[in-house]
Write a structure and sequence with these properties.
The complex is a heterodimer of chains A (264) and B (157). Chain A contains nine helices and no strands. Chain A is an all-alpha fold. Chain A is globular. Chain B folds into two domains: 98 residues, Alpha-Beta Plaits (2-Layer Sandwich), CATH 3.30.70; 38 residues, no CATH class. The longest helix of chain B is centred in the N-terminal third of the chain and has 5 residues. Classes of the chains: A mainly alpha (264), B mainly beta (157). At the A-B interface, α2, α6 and α9 of A face α1, β5, β6 and β7 of B.
Chain lengths: 264, 157
């Protein structure tokens, strides 16, 4: 199962071309949804206004060389390593889901477009990475859902209380969970059940990629931009109006350590 | 004067939700970011501002005494045991302050309240607060002061 391309094993009534058209449609939905999101929430306008305010409050100029260094640091620390999270459990869960999702999406694209039929043998590593990606999303996502998310950890709500903010994480979890179930059932030869879970997989995927204007899907585009802007404001001295880091009041010593927000 | 959250900086960790004494910091149901659900009830204690590890919370100034254009921002650095404040006036003047974090775990540090006698009924009805007037140490000579030499790890009084 793990080394078999699940897309070539589909029954004849789902032609490879239909899958390819579906993937392209999902890409179009994500692009269109993100643009609608930006226009509707005026997030780009806010972003550039905040950047202009920070620029006017600067105490020194940051040249383009320094800006490219900041962009690299943002990419390595904030994007690739999810460095903005202050809670290590949330950071680990985010890394698992992020890299799992990337593996899952990229290998899906390669398998659907490069190896659509059994005539061209799929390298074993692709389905392996596809399953691994789905599994990583499930591990990180369910850990987040049941134990880490703030509704449960800080607000004291039960795990089954669902709201609109859950659209992204739940549709993501549903997509990967149904994908794994579909692949397993198909490998086991359970034709009817496999078809059912394939249909559920497609529905969940459509909600995930089509729900961009209503979910937090677009955070993967605006969060890196916000992290970059924050680093630039640290470098040019505007620091979002924050005071500078305290310098050497050696007699002050250590105060109380922040406790985890678990007092409900 | 209530607090508000910069949504792009908030990562929804829940520290402000947990610490708010008025229970008015909550998580938004659409974006899973913190927000102040009832600004009228905010007493501007700055607990959430200081607790926010992302510095995503700010306080609006009251229009009567701090007109638009000013800002009061705070940076809590636990590893240094400091809280830094920056007051920016609308005419451009800036004032920075640094204070020690003096909060201590309940019941473990000085004063160890568990070591005091339980107050009797008369003490409970008295207008004096707990340990007054002894705790004010006025009889020791003048206003109570903290000797800088007493500043050590944790700043005990």
């Amino acid at each position: 199962m793990l080394t078999t391309n699940p897309f070539v094993e589909l029954p004849g009534y789902v032609p490879a071309l239909a899958l390819q058209v579906y993937v392209i449609l999902m890409i179009v939905l994500v692009v269109a949804g993100t643009l609608v999101d930006i226009v509707h929430k005026k997030s780009a306008r806010y972003f550039f206004e905040a950047a202009e305010n920070a620029r006017q409050a600067r105490s020194r100029d940051v040249d383009s060389g320094e800006k490219s260094g900041i962009a690299m640091k943002t990419l390595v620390h904030d994007v690739l390593a999810s460095g903005e999270f202050c809670n290590m459990r949330r950071r680990l869960a985010h890394l698992l889901t992020m890299y799992g999702f990337l593996l899952f999406v990229v290998t899906t694209g390669i398998m659907v477009f490069a190896y659509p039929t059994p005539d061209v043998a799929t390298p074993a590593v692709l389905p392996l990475l596809w399953h691994l990606g789905a599994l990583l999303v499930c591990v990180g996502g369910y850990w987040f859902w049941f134990f880490i998310r703030v509704d449960v950890a800080a607000e004291g709500n039960p795990w089954y209380r669902v709201m609109r903010a859950d659209l992204f994480v739940l549709s993501l979890l549903a997509t990967t969970t149904f994908a794994l179930a579909w692949s397993a059932l198909q490998a086991a030869g359970a034709g009817g059940w496999a078809t059912l879970f394939f249909a559920l997989f497609i529905v969940a995927g459509t909600v995930l990629f089509g729900g961009v204007p209503w979910s937090k899907f677009a955070h993967m585009f605006f969060k890196p931009a916000a992290a970059y802007q924050r680093r630039v404001s640290d470098a040019d001295g505007s620091r979002q109006n924050l005071p500078p880091p305290a310098d050497k009041p050696a007699q002050f010593g250590l105060g109380i350590k922040r406790e985890a927000p678990r007092h409900y | 004067m209530p607090t508000f959250v910069y949504m792009t900086r908030c990562d929804g960790c829940g520290n402000c939700v947990d610490i708010c004494p008025s229970d008015i910091m909550h998580i938004d149901k659409t974006y899973r970011r913190a927000y102040n659900i009832e600004p009228n009830m905010c007493w501007e204690c700055y607990a959430c501002v200081k607790a926010c590890p992302q510095n995503a919370i700010d306080v609006r100034g009251g229009a009567d005494y701090s007109p638009l254009g000013h800002s009061v921002r705070v940076l809590r650095e636990e590893e240094k045991g400091t809280i830094s404040w920056r007051v920016k006036f609308r005419d451009g003047r800036v004032k920075d302050f640094v204070s020690p974090i003096t909060t201590q775990p309940w019941g473990e540090k000085i004063p160890r309240l568990a070591d005091y006698e339980v107050p009797d009924e008369d003490a409970m009805k008295s207008p004096l607060l707990c340990h007054e007037p002894d705790g004010l140490k006025i009889d020791d000579g003048g206003l109570p002061m903290v000797d800088k030499a007493k500043f050590k790890q944790g700043v005990y009084y």
